[in-house]
Amino acid sequence: MTVGQKSVLGLKLEEIEAEKAKERQKIRKGSQFGTSVETLPQLSQEEKGTARDKAAKTVGVSGATLGKAKKIQKEGTPEQKEKLVNGKASVDQVYRWQPF
Predict the structure, then answer these.
(1) What value, to the nearest 5°, has the Cα angle with vertex 13 and ends 71 and 75?
(2) What is the pLDDT of residues 37-72, one digit of tens each?
(3) What is the C-alpha to C-alpha distance for residues 22 and 24, in angstroms, rounded to an integer?
């Protein structure tokens, strides 16, 4: 699997991680009234971090690469997206071709 393909997969995982983060935030905010720092649910080391960085680590790319892939998916042409998915070009190559 190429870095571009891993990045596309990472973008889907980022969405899942972002939803999990929202759920954790709801739990923590719901617990705030009348609680102290000691009684709030504590996050494990695995739960800490941004959704982007957690997803990137899972698929084996950097957070910056995943950020570039996200921009390509949002603003790139269909041809650029296809090259990324098919492994015909790297994330960096496609990112440089795109005038953002």
Answers:
(1) 15
(2) 555 566 665 666 789 999 999 999 999 999 999 999
(3) 5
Nearest C-alpha neighbor of 94 from the set 12, 14, 7, 13:
7
Side chain identity, residue 74: K
Task: Report which residue type is found at 39.
Answer: T
What 3-state class would DSSP assign to 7?
A: helix
Does residue 78 contact residue 68 with C-beta atoms inside 8 Å?
no
DSSP SS3 for 47: coil
Contacts with 81 (C-beta within 8 Å, 6 or more apart), sequence order: 72, 73
Give me the half-sphere count of Cα atoms (radius 13 Å) on the Cβ side of residue 23: 8
Question: Cα 82 to the chain's mean position, in Å?
Answer: 20
